[in-house]
Design a protein that fits this description.
This protein has 288 residues and is of the alpha/beta class. It is 46% helix and 14% strand. It has two domains: 178 residues, Rossmann fold, CATH 3.40.50; 87 residues, N-(1-d-carboxylethyl)-l-norvaline Dehydrogenase, domain 2 (Orthogonal Bundle), CATH 1.10.1040.10. The protein contains eleven helices and eight strands. It has an eight-stranded mixed beta sheet with strand order 3-2-1-4-5-6-7-8, sandwiched between helices. The protein starts with 8 loop residues before the first strand and ends in a 17-residue tail after the last helix. Bound molecules: nicotinamide-adenine-dinucleotide. The site of nicotinamide-adenine-dinucleotide (NAD) has 23 residues, from helix 1.
């Protein structure tokens, strides 16, 4: 099925938190999706994760079993990038590292049809640097989903100076096909949401470290006092502390704003391998 975008086959590269969520969103919207991870097991695990989340929705009576089966049947997986060759749009969701992403988009550029679009899910990196690593800078943009991708209604569409209006218009239609509202944002570190959110998260770490209140009470304060659905420490652990550190570093490099200088406690937790929910422990601890 193709919606207003007219696309049918979409590739997703990366099998982490965002990759798995985006695969579910795109397959649920009726597109054929192929997910590529570095290992076969990693790629297969994404399909298993999506199947198990959909099964939970079926069990709760929120989704028809036939619809869940149809969604899973639209997802295929691979560890070979070359198998994405027939995709009309590829979304990259690998680690927030410019060199890794640059290598990846350049490899994708070599194998995809010249008309295909490459979109990055980067949180802060300059999209133009990825665009110019390809021979199709007019067909490279950002498509920034939020976490969890299945639940968050917004995507930011990042418009580097090199991108064509036709690319942005098509990606906007694709976002609408996926049931997302979109805003266009300039190619500046953090775009809108993260430019505002991450200095706040960093400030919450500093506040707790100064002993104003403990982490659990800081979370309770922002839930109960601001009606936020989550406190900052719950959110930091959901995002992942390694990803948070990279985002703050890029924001700080680009803006020079001391509010984005990563707090030392964040660096210590990342060094210790306490990365948040994905490792069972971050600022808070989680049962296995
Ligand atoms: N976590 C969030 O809340 C969030 C929200 C929006 C956007 N993002 C962005 O999405 C992207 C992925 O973030 P995530 O949270 O899914 O991270 P994650 O740590 O859950 O997953 C990272 C993925 O990158 C792969 N990877 C790691 N090193 C690699 C390498 N050297 N070469 C190729 N692949 C490699 C991993 O195998 C994994 O599939 C990042 O650009 C991040 O900034 C994250």
């Amino acid at each position: 099925m193709a919606g207003g975008s007219g696309l049918t086959r979409v590739g997703v590269v990366g099998s982490g938190i965002m990759g798995a969520g985006i695969v579910e969103v795109v397959a649920s919207a009726g597109f054929e999706v192929i997910v590529r991870a570095r290992t076969e097991e990693g790629a297969a695990a994404v399909v298993a994760q999506v199947a198990s989340r959909l099964q939970r929705s079926v069990d709760k009576g929120r989704l028809e079993a036939t619809e869940a089966d149809a969604t899973v049947s639209r997802i295929s997986h691979t560890s070979h990038l070359g198998e994405l060759a027939a995709c009309e749009l590829v979304l990259e969701t690998v680690i927030e590292d410019l060199e890794v992403k640059r290598r990846l988009v350049s490899e994708l550029d070599e194998l995809l049809d010249p008309s295909a679009i490459i979109a990055t899910n980067t949180s802060t990196l300059p999209v133009v640097e990825l665009a110019v690593a390809t021979t199709r800078p007019d067909r490279v943009c950002g498509l920034h989903f939020f976490n969890p991708a299945t639940a968050m209604p917004l995507v930011e569409i990042v418009t580097p100076v090199t991108v064509a209006e036709s690319t942005i218009a098509l990606v906007e239609r694709f976002a609408a096909d996926c049931g997302k509202e979109s805003i266009r944002v300039a190619d500046r570190a953090g775009f809108v949401v993260n430019a505002l959110l991450f200095p706040y998260l960093n400030a919450a770490i500093a506040l707790a470290e100064r002993g104003v209140a403990n982490r659990v009470d800081v979370d309770r304060a922002m839930r109960g006092g601001c009606n936020f659905p989550m406190g900052p420490f719950e959110l930091l652990d959901l995002i992942g502390l390694d990803t948070t550190l990279r985002i703050l570093e890029t924001l700080h490099r680009e803006t020079g704003d001391p509010a984005s200088l990563p707090h030392p406690e964040l660096r210590r937790l990342v060094a210790a391998g306490h990365l948040g929910r994905k490792t069972g422990r971050g600022f808070l601890e989680y049962g296995t």
